[in-house]
Specification:
The complex is a heterodimer of chains A (160) and B (152). Chain A has 160 residues and is of the alpha/beta class. Chain A has a single domain (2-157), classed as Rossmann fold, CATH 3.40.50. Helices cover 40% and strands 14% of the residues of chain A. Chain A contains six helices and six strands, in the order E-H-E-E-H-E-H-E-H-E-H-H. A six-stranded parallel beta sheet of chain A has the order 3-2-1-4-5-6, with helices on both faces. The radius of gyration of chain B is 15 Å and the shape is globular. A seven-stranded parallel beta sheet of chain B has the order 3-2-1-4-5-6-7, with helices on both faces. In chain B, helix 4 links the parallel strand 5 and strand 6. Chain B starts with 6 loop residues before the first strand and ends in a 5-residue tail after the last strand. Chain B has helices at 16-22, 62-79, 90-99, 120-126, and strands at 7-11, 32-37, 50-53, 83-86, 105-109, 131-134, 146-147. Chain B contains four helices and seven strands. Chain B is of the alpha/beta class and 152 residues long. The chains are: A alpha/beta (160), B alpha/beta (152). At the A-B interface, helix 3, helix 4 and helix 6 of A face helix 1 and strand 5 of B.
Chain lengths: 160, 152
């Protein structure tokens, strides 16, 4: 199964439309998408506007590949569960978010080898054609850097 | 006698903010933790501490911002935390600003999604936080924010 998620309530129709087109062209029948508050009616993929956290976790964990917006929640989950991930950043210039932080996140994390990025629908189509070559990044543990944890813990325990 | 457990209010809005807050949990070991966020379904993510749902908001809906801010203030009065820890966004800003009023020390951990510059809420809240952190070493400044590591 391929799981597609826009991460939040905010729709990201550009992503869903592009994946739907690819699913139609390549006759993939195992694509499930969480599309947010969108009126889109994709033809080839199954959609949910929202998924409860348990349902979301179930889809995420049973997915072979994840295709998503470049949100940190999704990226951290993919790294944690070792899922091959393609992200397409939401763009402020297209009214998809308030500023270009997804673009910046995607660029930086791609340089670090943490995610595969498609910067637009054309690139996404290219990446999807080579989906079987997509690999998961090295998984991360359940918690933040020990140095960050220790710093916070020290601050909390030494208040007085 | 054992010293009293520190009361921690760990608060974040949904999605990535919440996922990042969860990754800080070992820092709260041995504390009396209350988690506050915006979706009831997130309760299943935590196994320790108590869990409270608050109203979310963002800058585009002015009335909702006031409503949400009032909710955060009530929450702080009820919980009376020694420390407020937040990974953002808007509700975390209010928790840092109002945390002072109930005598709490406050920690702002800017989201790892802010790679090129701090979030707007981070820039606004950071100066009021007792501990102000970015998760990117290239964004740390002598006058703050500091850098100790990241959730990645």
């Amino acid at each position: 199964m391929i799981f597609v998620t826009v991460g939040t309530d905010a729709p990201f129709d550009r992503l869903i439309t592009a994946v739907d087109r690819w699913a139609g062209e390549s006759a993939r029948e195992d694509v499930v998408a969480q599309i947010g508050r969108s009126n889109l009616r994709p033809r080839f993929i199954r959609v949910h506007q929202f998924l409860d956290p348990p349902q979301f976790a179930e889809h995420f964990s049973s997915a072979e590949f994840v295709i998503a917006h470049a949100g940190m929640g999704t990226i951290l989950s993919a790294l944690r569960y070792g899922k091959p991930l393609i992200v397409m950043p939401r763009r402020a210039t297209l009214g998809e978010q308030r500023n270009e932080h997804q673009l910046a996140t995607a660029r930086r994390l791609s340089e670090m080898g943490k995610v595969t990025v498609a910067f637009d629908e054309m690139e996404l189509a290219e990446r999807l054609k080579q989906l079987d070559r997509l690999r998961a990044a090295d998984p991360i543990g359940p918690y933040a850097d020990p140095s960050l944890i220790a710093g916070l813990r020290g601050f909390i325990q030494n208040l007085d | 006698m054992e010293p009293a457990k520190k009361k921690v209010l760990a608060i974040a809005s949904g999605g990535g903010h919440w996922v990042q807050l969860l990754r800080l949990r070992p820092a709260f070991a041995g504390c009396d933790v209350t988690f506050a966020t915006v979706r009831p379904g997130y309760k299943q993510d935590i196994s320790e501490g108590s869990f409270i749902v608050v109203r979310d908001c963002n800058r585009s809906h002015k009335l909702r911002v006031l409503w949400s801010a009032a909710g955060i203030l009530l929450l702080l009065i009820k919980v009376r935390p020694d420390v407020v820890v937040t990974t953002g966004a808007a509700i975390g800003y209010f928790a840092v600003r109002f945390g002072r009023w109930v005598g709490a020390r406050t920690i702002w951990v800017d989201s790892v999604a802010n790679v090129e510059e701090l979030s707007m809420s981070g820039q606004m809240a950071g100066r009021h936080a007792d501990l102000w952190l970015t998760q990117w070493s290239h964004l740390q400044r002598p006058e703050g924010p500091g850098f100790l590591g990241s959730v990645l």
